[in-house]
Amino acid sequence: MSYLFWQPVCKPSITRRTVLTTIFASLLAPKVVTAASSDQSTNLMDAFWVCYNANRGADLETRVAALNTTFLRPHIAFYIASITHGGPIHLMNSFISQWLTRVDGRVSDIHAMAEAIQPAWQEHEPRFRKVFPEAITRKLTIMPSIGCFNAKPGRLDGAETLFAAPDGMVLMGNTIEDLPVTLDHEAFHLYQHQVNQTINASYVWGRLWSEGLAQYVSQRLNPHASQSSIMMSTELAQASPQDIAVGTELARKAFDSTDQTALQTLFAAMTHDTLPPRIGYLVGLRAVEKISGNHTLDELARMPADRVRPILYRVLCC
Question: Domain coordinates of the chain in residue numbers?
């Protein structure tokens, strides 16, 4: 399910001086804006940094108001497009305030990550197409996710698009070395959606297969990557056999459910009392490893729901 939570009006309301300051800064910036290049990529980070730098010395409420008026409002279509294939985006003022405070302490890291994404994408494309030669051309959009995601598939202007968020990557603990894994994982979601629309990720079993298979693909395409990188989490990479067993049992019991509590417990990046966040990714990966056999990655991507569902259930019951 897709949700956009946005509160475009902030009190105290943004002043004329703040708007003029941001516009003047944008005119002086060496690179402004939404830069779209011939290689199907769009970079919103320059436009974001113009707004961020112009108002950095202001109080937090003014900064949030400026971000709403001079960045989020003009680019809201990108945020809507990023949730085409599901997932929430929280653009509420309280959420933005907390995020800005976190960004303030990681500016240099976010800059470095933003600069590294485009080269990593250029390296990723030919490598990915060797394994999935029928993959259609995909756009890349580099943008701040306001801490809501690190990278995710969506649809922009009618084209399948990978949205990559340097702020989300840094704040969620990803490193530049993790980029190949992250890009392969999310690009595979786009490819699977292209060749096989029978898997319904609104159900626990569908999400388990989709995420587990994306983990498996990124693991196969990056054989030298650490488990922490593959799982995008040190905690998940170090999950105990007991954690996996409990997660597997939960997935089995909620197998045909669309219950949001079960989905969040298994797949959301939030802390639970008894399980590592996103335990469903690891449960899904272990299931796919058992199912993969002699299948190629492309065959697994195309495996229809009526074959996946019963096999996946049997594996969870073993």
Answer: 2-195, 204-317
